[in-house]
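Example record

The entry below shows one chain as it appears in the dataset: sequence first, then structure tokens.
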Amino acid sequence: MQLSGKAFLSFTGFLQRQRTDKDVKRFIGIVIKIVFSRTMITIILLLVQLFWLLAGFKWLREYSQVFFAVMVAISAALLVYIINKDEMPEFKLAWVIPICVAPVFGALLYLFIVGDWTNIGMKKQLNKRRKETEQFLHTDEKTKKKMEISNAHMANLSHYVETEGGFPTYGNSSVTYFPTGEDKFIDLLEELRKAKEFIFLEYFIVERGKMWDSVLEVLKNKIKEGVEVRFMYDGMCSILLLPYSYPKQLNAYGIKTKMFSPIIPLLSTAQNNRDHRKIVVIDGKTAYTGGINMADEYINEVVRFGHWKDAAIKVEGEAVKSFTLMFLQMWNASESESEDYSRYIVQNQKCTVRSSGFVIPYGDGPSTSENVAETIYMDIVNQATSYVHIMTPYFIVDNAMLDVLQYAARRGVDVRLIIPHIPDKKAVFAISRTYYPDLLEAGVRVYEYEPGFIHAKIFASDDEKAVVGTVNLDYRSLYHHFECGTYLYRNEAVADVEEDFRKVLESCIEVNMEYYKNIPVINRLMGRVLRLFGPLM
């Protein structure tokens, strides 16, 4: 049976309308799903929180002169307290300005955020878990003696990290450096498949896609084999990337899952202290850390800001113990009961050690008063005699860090810094560029990675020292977030880190004053203004 030309056109028109109607219905369904999703509700509630705070301040100011007078007095007291506080001048200035400009709003905002009321219990609990694990975290006498013979200053630094940070130095450990997320991803899948006892994962960002779906499939299989799997990710993921109920879904598979510090609109002040760490521990024998999160841009399956350059390391041997306990400390910070940590500690580990060097895994965060991560970075720069090479996605530093970088360059050390050319956060990038004149004047050589975005966080110095971890050179990493890193001293992987730096350098634009002056004036001005509030960003 054949259709006439008119009938055929009528029929195809009908099909087109049907397809269009389906597309419209599908689009409406997606919109409804987004509008009524937990993510959208959370964002709306946060906006409502801000609106009521502002409206409340306005009403109280207009209708309660007594309240306003009291708040002015509190603001004056806060200014005295802030100025006399043992804190960096940059932090003080960032709060003095809003309190002076808007006494009521500025004072209440300071009390709300800096008071950090919703995090007090968590920090107290985390310190309790640290005390519980102290018995496992001591440098053995043999390693101490080797370090003292090797270098007295490094022995002192090792002592500092152990006493102030809570993490020892190890000798019987091997390190593999991964210069890309793709390299780490392939190796991680292979090691996960070998797991026999347990797998611990802790990440800042998790997004469904090739990377996470592949890992999740392995984890499901391991559950069937009787392997214990624990997975923790930062609560910020519930805002944009994952459903709020995602832990329930994973728990249904048998994967013990929790969000770190879930966002609670209208109640929580915990937005400022996030779990920025990336840790994987397998059977207490293998661990990973570095800048690579569980999302496809980190392995360049998705292109967001040009080529994504990242880095990670794998640690094997005795040093894995620190990562195991680092994870368990954080996991149990939200638990009422403690557990038998010794179950997860592998005694007298034997591994193929690549060198006779030292490995110092460490954690840092706002629950302790000592800034271990920044001190380690500054110590590397201060002790350098030949070179210090740095990769970081963000560069917003205090005067102390800026001073040591400038001083190192002025005394003849080859100080080089690589940051992105294509930023993921334009405001932060604008602030980072404001440091160019000061760095260049002192002799620091600055580069931008032309193909895209640098997310690696590495230091390399004098062919002896390197750090690979999660710690950016900005206030958020150095003071606000929970972070981790691995310090390598006279380990063969130091050469791999330096080789990667030099290779990346070939794809960079070197910055000079002419380059800086060609940055649009509005961008430079915006960066200078925002730099006042850098400690809060």
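Notes for this example: Residues 196 and 480 are 36 Å apart (CA to CA). DSSP finds 21 helices and 19 strands in the chain.
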